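User: I've been trying to design a sequence by hand for this structure and keep getting stuck. Would you show me what you'd pick, starting by listing the structure so we're on the same page?

Assistant: Good idea, let's start from the same input. This is the structure you sent:
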């Protein structure tokens, strides 16, 4: 294996690891983007698949609410 292809392989592995880290959703779960009704901050919530109303606390102001 040449130096060039070894470096490409290493970069590919790093990229794959980064992509895996970004995908944290387990099967059967869905990610909901909810905007806080109090401060308007976006919150990313993991919920069971099919769930429409999910209780969550805002990351910014800790306001407890449900997704719409
Ligand atoms: Zn908030």
């Amino acid at each position: 294996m040449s130096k060039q292809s070894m470096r490409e392989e290493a970069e590919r592995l790093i990229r794959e690891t980064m992509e895996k880290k970004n995908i944290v959703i387990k099967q059967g779960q869905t990610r909901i983007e909810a905007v806080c009704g109090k401060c308007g901050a976006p919150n990313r919530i993991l919920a069971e698949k099919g769930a429409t109303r999910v209780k969550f606390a805002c990351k910014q102001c800790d306001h407890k609410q449900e997704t719409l």
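That's my pick for every position. To get oriented when you compare it with your attempt: The two ends are 55 Å apart (CA to CA). Helices lie at 3-22.
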